[in-house]
Amino acid sequence: MTTEAPHRSVLLVGPRPASGSLAADLEADRFEVMLAADPAEAHGLLVQACPSALIVDLDMPASGGLEAVGMVRQGGPEDPWDAAMPVLGVSGAGEPHRVVRALERGADEVVGTPFAYVELLARLKALIRRADGEWAAGMLTVDDILIDRRARRVTVGGSPVTLSAKELGLLTALARDPRRVVSKQELLRDVWGYKSMGRTRTVDSHASRLRRKLAVASDGGRYIVNVWGLGYRLVADDA
Predict the structure, then answer these.
(1) Mutual angle of helices 64-73 and 96-105, in 10-degree steps
(2) Backbone angles phi, psi at 153, to 5 degrees
């Protein structure tokens, strides 16, 4: 009799009693589960095991949940884990600013507690499917920009450009149709997972940083064009 292989490995970051019951449910659904009580322990498991996804308790003391999210997203070329892995936050604090901060740090979604396990499982699987599909196509090329979607690397004219996970997500979203104006609402939904826009300059701040990095790498090339009142396109309409 053969045993089915696990779907994916998932790192749960949060208090052990709370995460233990969720771990048991995920293991029953054939996920390989690792537990970390705090960001320091999570870092060790990220290095050793390179999980496929992260579920983090955002209500941990001393903003430990936000720290864990940021740690994953800030992973550099020398870090072994995938800095763009799906990250699902869990919060029952009822504080909208905490959810916004988690999304700005790089969480893909935040689920409120108490939650139905079947809902969390569906969201986790959807994030993993989206991540798999996002990078399955390999390379994207726009002018002298090359996006290696498998390796999550970007070069401009052959020179590497270091991008955060969300900067890379923003660039990829615009590169799919580089002359189309993509609205801020669409970018917030597809890159940050926001369900409504609200008052946030997240897209603008990331677009500004990405524009500067691409301009430096391309010796002044004009990329990330702000079309006022509409959104952003990767290249100018007359490029």
Answers:
(1) 20
(2) -125, 150
- Tell me the C-alpha to C-alpha distance, in Å, between residue 56 and each of 68, 83, 108, 198: 7, 15, 11, 24
Phi, psi torsion values for 59, nearest 5 degrees: -95, 10
Residue among 30, 86, 21, 54 at smallest CA distance from 45:
54
The C-alpha atoms of residue 202 and residue 192 are separated, in whole angstroms, by: 9
Q: For residues 76 and 109, which has the higher predicted lDDT (pLDDT)?
A: 109
Q: How far is CA 34 from the centre of its chain?
A: 20
pLDDT, tens digit (0-9, with 9 covering 90-100), for 127-157? 888 777 665 556 788 889 998 876 778 999 8
One-letter amino acid of 206 = H
Q: What span, in angstroms and rounded, lies between the C-alpha atoms of 84 and 133?
A: 13
Residue 4: pLDDT band by 50, 70, 90 thresholds? very low
pLDDT confidence of residue 135: 56
Q: Which helix (H) or strand (E) holds 62?
A: none
- For each of the domains in the chain, give its residue range(s) and CATH number, in order of start: 9-134 (3.40.50.2300), 139-235 (1.10.10.10)
Cα 122 → chain centroid:
17
